[in-house]
Write a structure and sequence with these properties.
The chain is α+β, with helices and mostly antiparallel strands. The protein contains 5 helices and 6 strands; from the N terminus they run βαβαβββααβα. It has a 6-stranded mixed beta sheet. The longest helix has 10 residues.
Length: about 140
């Protein structure tokens, strides 16, 4: 199993929106960055990810699971763009802020710290465990 981080602006697609989709989940559509798209191409059903609210909140607020591997993004006719489907699994009891992540020296090499603008990014198993711990899971 691999681990990922999915960033979303809460006013566009919030954690509550993701929860409301239930087990059917939702496409992680609209990604127009080649590196982020390529990361989605690497994902497998069952992989887990952090759901991250960007903009003002800047925090990990939930855990998601990949439920469909990369396929054409339904929001465009451009064949270059693909997406995966994800479903909500669990709410993080204590949201883990970007500030807390940056303050933890164990997370200094995390992609989120080094390239905070990338909307879909890998997370190492060690980072996964640390952030879950910081979030009360």
């Amino acid at each position: 199993m691999a681990f990922w981080l999915f960033k979303s602006e809460p006013n566009t697609w919030s954690w509550q929106h993701q929860i409301d989709k239930g087990d059917a989940g939702e496409e992680w559509d609209g990604v127009r960055n080649y590196q982020a798209r390529n990361f989605m191409r690497e994902m497998a059903v069952g992989d887990r990810g952090f759901f991250y609210h960007s903009l003002k909140e800047k925090s990990v607020v939930g855990i998601v699971e990949v439920i469909a591997e990369a396929h054409p993004d339904s929001t465009t006719d451009d064949a270059r763009w693909e997406c995966v489907d994800i479903k909500a699994v669990e709410t993080v009891p204590t949201p883990v802020t970007l500030e807390a992540i940056k303050a933890d020296p164990r997370l200094s090499e995390m992609v989120l710290v080094k390239n905070s603008r990338l909307s879909v990014q890998p997370v190492t198993e060690t980072e996964w465990k640390i952030i879950r711990e910081l979030g009360g899971l």
